[in-house]
Amino acid sequence: MMRNLAMLTDLYEFSMAGGFHRELPKTRGVFDIFYRNVPDHGSFVVAAGLAQVVDVLRDFHFDASDIAYLRGLKLYDDDFLAYLADFKLDCTVTAVAEGTPVFPREPLLTVEGPLDQVQLLETVLLNIVNHQSLIATKARRITFAAAGRPVMEFGARRAQGPDAAIYGTRAAIIGGAASTSNVLAAKAFGIPAAGTMAHSWVEAFPSELAAFRSWAKQYPDNAALLVDTYDVLASGVPNAIIVFKELLAAGHKPVGIRIDSGDITKLAKLARRQLDAAGLPDVKITASNALDEYVIPALLAEGAPLDNFGIGEKLITSSSSPVLSGVYKLAATRTNGVLKPKIKVSASIEKTTLPGIKQTYRLYRPGSCEAFADVIALADEQLTAPLAVVNSNPLTTHKRIVLTAFDAQPLSAPVPLDQPAPSKVFAIQRFAKTKLAELPSETQRLVNPDTYTVYVTQQLADLQQQLMDEAKRD
């Protein structure tokens, strides 16, 4: 699936890298990827994309045609172009594991390396992490709404291009989806491929019953029938019942029906009555048609007897909140072994960055798996009680407190770049479910979730204030 993506960047990244190569050749940079705002007014984002990040970094190079193109721009000198032609990545990465719920301002990924190199990585890393974390987060919301019922991702035709369809499917599984209609993604990532039929199959035959019988003849053990081409209750379900009984008589087990239009609740209730009356209580009912995390709970609250959901565009595009605006900010430089924290100051404290190399810790009630807060600390700090911390939310009333009892677990860890990252998506999904279960249930609500507190240590807060004061004097 992977191809070299070194040229997937913005022109200014090359221009900055070329300047760094000439002006600061001995300086290394430390950049954090983090986000500020949660999509869909949620409380957290599910991290995803690390496996592709590792793949990209392991094959990061510039071929002869890349160098020829860059030379043709007449912007860069021969020394820089020769450096790119013989490019050897010299970077280290730390990151949270895929599937980890992450809160605003917490680094999802940190990369350190020669300043010219880490500058070149900005666009491609943000592209991967922003997109896949966005879709994993949307999938978490939709599967949460489905309340244990399987969700099939089938939005490939509405995704913003092939890569978005393929890696969006992977992210959807991390977020909780059970299967996909996308055969390429299913093959690439070991995901169950699922699907029924389109209306064109039914329309192509002389009658709906003939269409259903032909499908059952071809796929006797995968007889999931789309019943809304003409009339769900007058023909679709009755014809499906005829075919299902014929399958049972031949020793096969029918799968179910899918309803893709109309009043889903009303149709599902009446279809269920028809199926049960025909002695087919095990036949499943799947709903599709522009569903999301708001429509699904409404259907279930109305008593719709649905067993599965097929979700297309509203999942694969996260259409209600289509951007995770993660950013890539310089946190420190290192020259001749000397680390210097860096800060981006803004008129808004919300946009002022946290300086230095950091670690995020999840805090648990002592001896339990119940998380109650996170703390962002400088990487060399030791978290022991009592611990003075500052609430990272600039709008909170009580900012400074002392934490007296907690177990702390670091969220970020070094990522080996000499081997592929773990990529078995259902293992990552199980990990995500475990980490989500540790969070307070109030923070997982789809509407008006409670705020999960993220603190910074007093030492980090003091460093930030010091650098802000220095910037004012400059």
Automatic annotation (TrEMBL):
Pathway: Cofactor biosynthesis; NAD(+) biosynthesis; nicotinate D-ribonucleotide from nicotinate: step 1/1. GO terms for molecular function: glycosyltransferase activity; nicotinate phosphoribosyltransferase activity. Pfam families: NAPRTase (PF04095), NAPRTase_C (PF17956), NAPRTase_N (PF17767). InterPro entries: Aldolase_TIM, N/Namide_PRibTrfase, NAPRTase_C, NAPRTase_N, Nic_PRibTrfase-Fam, Nic_PRibTrfase_pncB, Nicotinate_pribotase-like_C. The keyword Phosphoprotein applies. Residues 358-463 form the Nicotinate phosphoribosyltransferase C-terminal domain. It comes from the Bacteria. Its EC number is 6.3.4.21. Keywords: Glycosyltransferase, Ligase, Phosphoprotein, Pyridine nucleotide biosynthesis, Transferase. It catalyses: 5-phospho-alpha-D-ribose 1-diphosphate + nicotinate + ATP + H2O = nicotinate beta-D-ribonucleotide + ADP + phosphate + diphosphate. Residues 7-130 form the Nicotinate phosphoribosyltransferase N-terminal domain. Residues 151-339 form the Nicotinate/nicotinamide phosphoribosyltransferase domain. Transmembrane segments: none annotated. Transiently phosphorylated on a His residue during the reaction cycle. Phosphorylation strongly increases the affinity for substrates and increases the rate of nicotinate D-ribonucleotide production. Dephosphorylation regenerates the low-affinity form of the enzyme, leading to product release. This is Nicotinate phosphoribosyltransferase.
